[in-house]
Amino acid sequence: xxxxxxxxxxxxxxxxxxxxxxxxxxxxxxxxxxxxxxxxxxxxxxxxxxxxxxxxxxxxxxxxxxxxxxxxxxxxxxxxxxxxxxxxxxxxxxxxxxxxxxxxxxxxxxxxxxxxxxxxxxxxxxxxxxxxxxxxxxxxxxxxxxxxxxxxxxxxxxxxxxxxxxxxxxxxxxxxxxxxxxxxxxxxxxxxxxxxxxxxxxxxxxxxxxxxxxxxxxxxxxxxxxxxxxxxxxxxxxxxxx
Length: 242
Prior knowledge:
Number of strands: 9
Radius of gyration: 18 Å
Order of helices and strands: HEHEEEHEHHEHEEEH
Shape: globular
Number of domains: 1
CATH topology: Muramoyl-pentapeptide Carboxypeptidase, domain 2
Distance between the termini: 41 Å
Oligomer: single chain
CATH architecture: 2-Layer Sandwich
Strand order of the largest sheet: 3-5-6-8-7
Number of helices: 7
Structural class: alpha/beta
Low-confidence stretches: 16-21, 23-28
CATH class: Alpha Beta
């Protein structure tokens, strides 16, 4: 069993190398000091980008991850803002094409072990990040609009593990969007099962090319996020763009 698991991770690492190599030719979009952030506000520009490079595509998560569960917190009031930030009852979300492919690989391996994924957030329009900043204005909790975020780039996902049969979330020690030290990746004053659950999520995500955010156990970003532009496109427009 251990040998099979190690072989699986080696294979996934190879696939990740292929993905990241394919994205390495993209120019870095992170602004240099003093330069304005590049933001894609219109579909004509977005369409031009994906015609030049298919990796720029924003794709709906569900078709490629058949067992995925969505619990998009910002489409309801069940979030730290206590207000709805996305269209009501939103039941779809997006990531860039190579990021979805990597996430699908993680899901396949987790499914073999009896686990699945539940997504709390993925793509976030830049306008929403600006609203977060206006209301909170603290980089410990929300992204600074001057820099944009991985969510705006379609390269970051907030998620947890579930039991594939019961669909119940595995215990992670805190809820999503808990801004205490207990939510940190390095926090160890937790039951051993919680530590194992967090490690399983982290190992699964990092094996396919994501990196963990130290202060949030649920937050994972693609290792080449800076290669993608910040987007300020509506969910419904992305859904109808294919």
